Amino acid sequence: GLADRLQSTIQKIRGKGKINEADVKEMMREVRLALLEADVNFKVVKEFVKKVSERAVGQEVMKSLTPGQQVIKVVKEELTELMGGEQSKIAVANRPPTVIMMVGLQGAGKTTTTGKLANLLRKKYNRNPMLVAADIYRPAAIKQLETLGKQLSMPVFSLGDQVSPVEIAKQAIAKAKEDHNDYVLIDTAGRLHVDEALMDELKQIKELSSPDEIFLVVDAMTGQDAVNVAQSFNEQLGLTGVVLTKLDGDTRGGAALSIRSVTQTPIKFVGLGEKLDALEAFHPERMASRILGMGDVLSLIEKAQANVDEEKAKELEQKMRTASFTLDDFLEQLGQVKTMGPLDELLKMMPGANKMKGLNNLKIDDKQITHVEAIIQSMTKDEKIHPETINANRRKRIAKGSGTSVPEVNRLLKQFEEMKKMMKQMTGTQQKGKKKGGFK
Ligand code: GDP
Ligand code: MG
């Protein structure tokens, strides 16, 4: 993902208090490459990089973030912005039925999406849709929609393949009024390429049925082509929304970025599979994360290194050196790592941890962190600094005060002791090797 590309640059600017122009420039070079690689329109990329650079340069680094994270944050915010807000609302006609035209190239997923959308309309909005088979050209297209209708137990309007799609649409709307179907979803024909005949037919259907929505269905896998398709459909028909299908596949999501900014048409839904429930509202933020490859950036190393506040880390390092690490420090550490993942995994990421034997014994269950916190909070100030003074009676009191048990208190104290031991070991190793240690 994009974040991968940013890694080395992130390493370089780590520890800085302010992000300078050169840092941003370097990161933006990676951003530009990654976006182009994700098949984002070059004009969009240019505009985007400019915007992010302006925002990122000279920013004070927030305490909770490293400079690298800060730039990533700006990038993510701008990516989200570029794709617009959440737009999953569907029009409702003043006088039913609400007519939705589904358009797009062959194989984009129109018919499937028609079924999915009908399903969503019923499930989420309690509507009663009718499906209309207006693709009379593709063999078995009518049958395909009828099969979907059967699966959904929804009416499918069809007049076979000898009546014009315009006539089919007209009669379907009349029938829907009669039968009190409040939504009419017209599944239209596609071609392999945008051509005049296709557009003419769609324009005629549009004129006659005055649709409340015209949804373009595009295959996300086609990347930049999807953007061109969206542009020509929008110019000719005036789209009200885009449905991006096949996002469950191995697509990088570049189309999502460009479609919105090139056509000014919102992406309303995304298709995430072949099944009838695999249609979701489009979340720009989620897509931004996907493009960024947040999954990657949240690798444990990054998490462990990035989330420990730089200042705190220095302080901590000092404490570890002087072995004055207390239970209070431990508690604070817990607070920092709580959101990052399994604690024992994180501890392994600590510098020097690979040299520590016995780390595997230091298993701390994430679910127990809250208990651990409660236990430490139930200790007196003095006990936290001198845990060796915590005798059996005190353990009982602490267990009671924290709503835990004596064995839990014992376990924590033992773990803390081990941790301290390891820290001494670590400090020892560092001194022997005369290396500068601590958190990076
Ligand atoms: P149409 O020609 O535009 O009507 O396209 P279809 O609805 O017939 O879909 C073409 C193929 O794409 C079918 O095999 C669908 O099952 C598949 N498809 C549609 N949407 C999705 C999706 O979101 N994810 C996946 N994996 N496949 C999809
Ligand atoms: Mg079809």
TrEMBL record:
It is found in: Cytoplasm. It holds the Pfam family SRP_SPB. GTP binds at residues 104-111, 187-191, 245-248. SMART domains: AAA, SRP54, SRP54_N. Residues 301-333 form a coiled coil. Keywords: Coiled coil, Cytoplasm, GTP-binding, Hydrolase, Nucleotide-binding, Ribonucleoprotein, RNA-binding, Signal recognition particle. Residues 426-440 are annotated as: Disordered. InterPro entries: AAA+_ATPase, P-loop_NTPase, Signal_recog_part_SRP54_M_sf, Signal_recog_particl_SRP54_hlx, Signal_recog_particle_SRP54_M, SRP, SRP54, SRP54_GTPase_dom. Composed of three domains: the N-terminal N domain, which is responsible for interactions with the ribosome, the central G domain, which binds GTP, and the C-terminal M domain, which binds the RNA and the signal sequence of the RNC. Involved in targeting and insertion of nascent membrane proteins into the cytoplasmic membrane. Binds to the hydrophobic signal sequence of the ribosome-nascent chain (RNC) as it emerges from the ribosomes. The SRP-RNC complex is then targeted to the cytoplasmic membrane where it interacts with the SRP receptor FtsY. Part of the signal recognition particle protein translocation system, which is composed of SRP and FtsY. This is Signal recognition particle protein. It comes from Cytobacillus purgationiresistens.
